[in-house]
Design brief:
Alpha-Beta Plaits, Alpha-lytic protease prodomain-like, alpha+beta
Length: 332
């Protein structure tokens, strides 16, 4: 008997209209303050303020991208896009990460030049604008946090990318405020460039994390923290399961994990019962609610042919992918 089944209890989801309103509110706040900061940075000859303003521009762009991709991801599957456009948010997250890294490289170069030849910087203006920026970013961070972790839902890598921009900017303003205070008290103009390098380090860390996380999804890697070998061994350890092979587990989009496998069931046992048990295990223990399992009975010994396993290392399928898991295998 052969059975194929897909558990259609998708765990993912697009943030609701309330989340979009919080995002739009933080966007308006950031754009309004950004214009004032650019003017102040030019007047004070402060690269730290200009770099903060440039970062705020990427904040605004990232939030705008989040709002656009939320609408795309909400569209139902159609045509050749059998999952819809749910991965649009992962494209957005990767774009946010790349933008952070590129901007950090440019600011790092400018900061090093200013370390060598520091221009005069108006410390009082830098300090005042930076403190105002801390307040604005705290407000924006609170708004973003509401959309970042929707009640009863899963965090979105897309929103996470925009949130990384905002939090990095908050730390950047704190570093700039310290630089402004140092310049005001001591006249040490290089503090401005040093604060910019601190911002650069934070941007590289946030951007690199987003690129890695989105890259894993595009390369169909297993969800972070889930070991496929342990999953295969756990499935093989369930009652009446003789073998699990061709096991694949991946992430479709944030909070939407998927798995597929070929399962062999002991002779005389009910394939449907075994499949339901395995789907429950995947959902309950691993958060995988989009599972496609092909379930077959193990052939009788007298009916074995060359493509049926006759030893521990021989696969059941003619073109297997990955290892086979059988009862008694240890979880790695």
């Amino acid at each position: 008997m052969t059975g194929g089944h897909d558990g259609h209890r998708h765990a993912g989801g697009v943030p609701g209209e309330a989340d979009a309103r919080w995002l739009a509110g933080s966007l308006a706040l950031i754009v309004a303050f950004m214009g004032a900061e650019i003017a102040a940075g030019i007047l004070a000859h402060s690269l730290a303020l200009v770099s903060d303003a440039a970062h705020m521009l990427t904040d605004a762009a990232s939030i705008g991208l989040v709002l656009a991709t939320m609408r795309l991801a909400a569209k139902p599957p159609a045509g050749g896009y059998t999952y819809g456009l749910k991965r649009a948010e992962i494209l957005s997250a990767q774009a946010n990460g790349i933008t952070l890294v590129v901007l950090a490289a440019w600011l790092g170069y400018a900061a090093i030049r200013r370390l060598i030849t520091p221009p005069p910087v108006t410390g009082g203006v830098v300090l005042g604008v930076a403190l105002a920026g801390v307040c604005v970013n705290l407000a924006a961070t609170c708004m973003m946090a509401r959309a970042r972790r929707p009640a009863g839902g899963h965090g979105s890598l897309n929103v996470e990318g925009a949130f990384a921009h905002i939090v990095t900017d908050l730390y950047a303003f704190a570093a700039t405020a310290v630089a402004g205070l140092v310049i005001l008290l001591t006249g040490f103009a290089r503090a401005d460039a040093i604060a910019t390098l601190v911002v650069v380090g934070l941007m590289l860390r946030a951007g690199g994390g987003l690129i890695r996380a989105s890259g894993r999804i595009f390369l169909e890697a297993a969800p972070a923290g889930l070991e496929p070998a342990a999953l295969g061994a756990a499935m093989a350890g369930r009652p009446h399961v003789a073998e699990v092979h061709d096991l694949h587990v991946w992430v479709i989009t944030s909070g939407m994990h998927a798995a597929s496998a070929h399962v062999l069931v002991a002779p005389g046992q009910d394939c449907h019962t075994v499949r339901a048990d395995l789907e429950g295990l995947l959902a309950r223990e691993y958060g995988i609610t989009h599972a496609t399992l092909q379930v077959d009975h193990v052939p009788e010994p007298l009916l074995k042919v060359s493509r049926i396993p006759s030893g521990p290392g021989e696969p059941h399928c003619g073109d297997p992918h990955g290892p086979c898991y059988r009862p008694g295998d240890r979880e790695h």
